[in-house]
Write a structure and sequence with these properties.
This protein is mostly beta strands and about 150 residues long. It has one helix and twelve strands; from the N terminus they run E-E-E-H-E-E-E-E-E-E-E-E-E. It has a four-stranded antiparallel sheet, with no helix packed on it.
Length: about 150
């Protein structure tokens, strides 16, 4: 949480900024929360600490459909897409990853709903097992070769 300077104390409200990003900083979510304000458009009337359209543009101008522009674009031709599946789902202690094709070891990453990486490793065969004892109950995503699937740990 980052407190935005209260440049107009007479408006009766303040602003907090929440910011999340992936490990590389190429994907980002920013949320502004007005405390003590009405349901209005900040900067036009109501809260005067931020000007909404300026805040929105200052954030969005750094991104395109693939993420942060300075991170470069990821083109599908940059990697070979493979089909894969997971089982069982939901699971309690182990996740099986089944690759339709296996040509070489494939990296995977498991992350929580906040985008925080929880487990990483390499799949060494067409069918690989990942131990999940270290994960708490909840929803997780697994990312393999440019694709993500969700699963539930009970």
């Amino acid at each position: 949480i980052i407190e935005v300077p209260d440049i107009n104390p007479s408006d009766g409200s303040t602003v907090e900024r929440y910011q999340w990003s992936d490990a590389q900083g190429c994907r980002e979510l920013t949320h502004y929360k007005v405390l003590g304000g009405d349901h209005d458009w900040p900067g036009a009337f109501g809260n005067m600490d931020i000007v909404s359209h300026e805040v929105i543009w200052d954030h969005l101008k750094e991104f395109d459909m693939n993420g942060r522009i300075s991170c470069g674009s990821l083109v599908v031709s940059d990697f070979e897409l493979i089909s894969w599946s997971i089982a069982p789902n939901p699971t309690s202690s182990r996740l099986i990853i089944n690759l339709d094709e296996f040509r070489a070891p494939v990296d995977y990453r498991i992350f929580n709903t906040g985008g925080i990486s929880c487990l990483e490793g390499t799949l060494q065969s067409k069918s690989s097992s990942i131990e999940l004892e270290s994960l708490k109950a909840g929803t997780y995503g697994i990312h393999v070769k440019g694709q993500t699937q969700l699963f539930i740990v009970r």
